[in-house]
Amino acid sequence: MSPFIQVKDLSFTLSGNPILKQICIEAAQGEYISIIGPNGAGKSTLIKCLAGIHRGWTGSIQLNKRTFSDYTPRELAKLQSYVPQAEGRSTPLTIEEFVMLGRYPHLSAFSTLKSTDYTAINKAIALAELDSFRHRKLNTLSGGERQMTFIAAALAQESKLLLLDEPSTFLDYRHKANVANLLKKACRETGVTVLAVHHDINTAIASSDRIYALKNASIAFSGTAEEIADSKKLEQLYGTEFQCTSSPGQALPIITTGGSL
Q1: What whole-number distance in Å separates Cα of residue 213 and Cα of residue 36?
Q2: Cβ distance 146 to 90 under 8 Å?
Q3: 8 A C-beta contact, residue 95 and residue 150
């Protein structure tokens, strides 16, 4: 299967410091790809380069076999959507009103929402299991509920690629699980490609088809979840000791460490 997104030799320098060095990654349509690595490795910068937030990088990014620079901003918005870290952002809009904003690439100036737009909005709200309180305002929601709403808005955009920067950071365990389940369900039911930075290794391993690990601004690992679930590989990556503990009924081990990730 040919890749939907293909990144070759992507490098990015900020104030004379190399933040990314010759990054090569790819993902097929419908794949869930996680990006992990220690703090300062360049994970968030990579996602922001792919989202078009950071400019001035070198190398190449291809989406659907076309070069990134060949697309207009509106065309890019129809192909990819971006969800930043959950940082307590809020708005007086309702869930439904906020998810409606995800339809902006499909609208022209002064146009109104059509039946196809409402179908996409309702599908995204249902997928995120937000239907029962779609009329609540975002500033009355918990952090986890708001993050589910932001992801729902990205899904309503009906893009082919969903870029996420640590989507479950600052969330409790229940909401981390809800976000992970939503993203896996989106891959399975809509065919969207997910490319997500994950701070938590267990979330990345449980969710991903494949994993890339960054260290010192470069790719340090590329492979499957099974392959990265190895204490020696993780120790080399993070510089601290790990234990991989098998659990009955679980295909993959639980990763624990005495240090902080």
Answers
A1: 5
A2: yes
A3: no
Question: Token pair for residue 160?
Answer: 């082919």
Other Cβ atoms less than 10 A from the Cβ of 31: the count is 20
57: left (phi over 0), alpha (psi -120 to 50) or beta: beta
Maximum C-alpha span of the chain: 57
Of the candidates 28, 22, 20, the residue with the CA atom closest to the CA atom of residue 4: 28
Residue 191: count other Cβ atoms within 10 Å of its Cβ.
Answer: 12
pLDDT in tens, 90-129: 788 999 999 999 999 999 877 899 999 999 999 999 999 9
> Hey, how many other C-beta atoms are within 10 angstroms of the C-beta on 128?
26
Q: Which tokens hold the place of 164?
A: 């996420």
Provide the phi-psi class of 174: left if phi over 0, else alpha when psi is between -120 and 50, else beta.
Answer: alpha
pTM, entire model: 0.92
